[in-house]
Write a structure and sequence with these properties.
Distance between the termini of chain B: 22 Å
Radius of gyration of chain B: 31 Å
Radius of gyration of chain A: 17 Å
CATH class of one domain in chain A: Alpha Beta
Oligomer: heterodimer
Number of strands of chain A: 10
Helix content of chain A: 25-40%
Strand content of chain A: 25-35%
Shape of chain A: globular
Largest sheet of chain B: 4 strands, antiparallel
Shape of chain B: elongated
Strand order of the largest sheet of chain B: 2-3-1-4
Structural class of chain A: alpha/beta
Number of domains of chain B: 2
Bound molecules: adenosine-5'-triphosphate, magnesium ion
Helix content of chain B: 55-70%
Distance between the termini of chain A: 21 Å
Structural class of chain B: alpha+beta
Order of helices and strands of chain B: HHEHEHEHEHHHH
Largest interface: A-B, 22 and 15 residues
Strand order of the largest sheet of chain A: 6-7-8-3-9-10
Number of helices of chain A: 6
Chain lengths: 220, 287
Amino acid sequence: MIGFNQVTKIYDNITALRNVTFSIEKGEFVFITGPSGAGKSTLLKLVYLAERPDEGSINIAGWDTETLKEKAIPYLRRNIGIVFQDFKLLYNKTVYDNIAIALRIRGIKEAEIKDRVHEVLKMVNLRHKTDSYPRELSGGEQQRITIARAIVGEPTVLIADEPTGNLDVDNTAGIMRIFREINAKGTTILFATHNRDLFRNTGLRVLRLDNGNLVSDEKG
Amino acid sequence: MYSLKLALKSLWYDKWINLLSIVSIATGLFILGTVLLSLYNIERATQNMPERFTITLFLNEKISKKDVDLLIKRLKRESIVKEIDYISKEDALKELKTSLKDAAYILEGLDENPLFPSIVIKVRRENFDRDRVEALIKKLKGFNQIDEIIYADEILESIQDVYSGFKFVSLGVSLLFSVSVVFVCYSTVKILFFRRKEEIEVYKLLGATRSFIRAPFIIEGTIIGIVGGVAALAGNYLLVSLLKGMTNPVAVLKLIEIPVQLMVILPVAGLVLGLTGSTIALGRLKY
Ligand SMILES: Nc1ncnc2c1ncn2[C@@H]1O[C@H](COP(=O)(O)OP(=O)(O)OP(=O)(O)O)[C@@H](O)[C@H]1O
Ligand SMILES: [Mg+2]
């Protein structure tokens, strides 16, 4: 599903990732962890092609970064749902429109969009906030909206960068439950966090980064 | 379709920026329209003044019928001559009498016709060539039966000069304002783009194609252009009706007309210039 082969990413003179090699199978739930500045976000950005590797190659859902054309990126991204730590919601649009936009860019008909948006809103328990604006929601609710937006297009891979970073214990637990549910439906998940509590004793795979190096790959 | 909706929404959302742009574009196109309007009306006015392209030959009083015929025959061979009109002494008197109307009695005391016979030559207006007219006049001066040649030399020259000068300036002004309209659309789209940079970033990350992102901006820029064009047209109509309705009107102004083509030209110019401006703006932006 996702394969990194000898990947190195250098910003100016900082090596954010060094010679990283791993591969993830379809349906896996994988945590990326490590201290601040270890390269977690960089690794995820390489997956959704916000960045390109300086060395090595990345394979995503059968697409290879070495041969991938610029024009194909939007179509590849439609297979990847992204949950950002800073939400990246559109604050001048309603909750409904924020989620619907992910389907509108695909040219899907409004009638179908309506059904699917309501379905994902039910999944994140925010059906009653359909017509609210993001500012009227709590941090945990906003994060659930971004999850809804990420999964409404039924991606094969779901990427999350510190999705629980700003949330309290209850909200965090709620969000983890949603991710497990999504994973149970067959979606591959890449989840970056420095919070060990999230993967301790889960038996899920954990990739540990430190200073740009992949230092361990084991079960949590 | 969704792009159109986005564009319309954004037109409303950023209405002040858009309104400002529309006003600037309308002003530019209004000036453009006024220039075209003036050109059109000057062209029309000069077409109604063929007498400006006339050479009058005053002939010797005692010229014989044979010499007149000969002269006319010669003139007919000149390619720039369009029409020849011979006015005899008697014709000239008759004409004078009719033009004097009630005052014709002042001629009654005359026992002799004081007028001269003349030939009026109309010069071809199309492909008008001053040098050839002058060459003809020079040739005619060689005839001893011709007393005087009157040719609206200076008037003609100045009209010709003013008109071609005006055409030249118009071209420059039109070009200048076309470029500024493009620039206004360009800047507007660029401003709108930067105002929505975060939104665009999100669209991109969700998998929007370049054309999905561009379309609303291009539509918006084009709508701004068209609306500007229509507003400019309305402005031109207003200007013309104001000029025509002036209480102390200069007679010529009454004759001003709006060419139908302008109704198409201005909105289409707005569309094309708006489209050009927004396309350039988007082409130069990295996203
Ligand atoms: N756009 C950039 N330009 C320059 N350097 C960058 C850029 N993005 C990241 N870096 C650097 O690359 C290294 C890895 O950054 P990255 O964001 O991947 O860390 P992280 O593991 O996500 O950290 P955190 O837990 O704080 O989010 C850091 O040293 C960072 O300063
Ligand atoms: Mg990070």
